[in-house]
Amino acid sequence: MYELKTKENDRSVLEFIDAVDHPKKKEDAYRLLDLFTETTGYQAKMWGTSIIGFGAYHYKYASGHEGDAPLVGFSPRKARISLYMATGDPDRGALLDKLGKHKAGKACVYINKLDDIDREVLKQMITQSVAFLQETYPPDE
């Protein structure tokens, strides 16, 4: 049976960010840590070896595949910073149009540096992504 590699764990978020080689990317990671924490109200947790996630939800697809994932998150990768937002949100495109310089994949938004984007729009995207996932996958009562 397939097992997800990206699971929440007890690794230190601050140690992970401190280990980022590029000084500007490290600075942006600390700024994103503050922005995501303030916007979501969730404490940052490491997911796998390189994703900083906020909150969590349990998903189950029609295929039967299920698992846990962070509501939102980011990773200061070598090439770009990856921002993890909800997939399937029909309102995502309107905010992406206002975000600034980025590339968008199915689940990720890639930026070179935080100064390339509008942080207020990013906050709206974070809030919208959390709300969409909590509505789509409501927490068990």
Description of the structure:
With 141 residues, this protein is α+β, with helices and mostly antiparallel strands. It is 35% helix and 23% strand. The chain contains 4 helices and 9 strands. The protein has helices at 13-18, 23-40, 92-99, 119-136; strands spanning 8-9, 44-47, 51-54, 57-60, 66-69, 72-76, 81-84, 103-104, 108-111. Strands 1-2-3-6-7-9-8 form a 7-stranded antiparallel β-sheet. A two-stranded antiparallel ribbon has the order 4-5. It is globular and about 45 Å long.
For the structure shown, list the relevant keywords.
globular; 35% helix; 7-stranded antiparallel sheet; 23% strand
Helix content: 25-40%
DSSP E strands, number: 9
Query: What is the chain-wise order of helices and strands?
Result: EHHEEEEEEHEEH
Largest sheet: 7 strands, antiparallel
* Unreliable stretches: none
Radius of gyration: 15 Å
Which structural class do you get from the secondary structure elements? alpha+beta
In which order are the strands of the major sheet placed? 1-2-3-6-7-9-8
Mean pLDDT: 92
Give the strand content: 15-25%
Distance between the termini: 28 Å
Number of helices, counting only DSSP H or I runs of 4 residues or more: 4
Shape: globular
Write the layout of secondary structure elements.
Blueprint: E1 8-9, H1 13-18, H2 23-40, E2 44-47, E3 51-54, E4 57-60, E5 66-69, E6 72-76, E7 81-84, H3 92-99, E8 103-104, E9 108-111, H4 119-136
Antiparallel strand pairs: 1-2, 2-3, 3-6, 4-5, 6-7, 7-9, 8-9
Helix pairs in contact: 2-4, 3-4
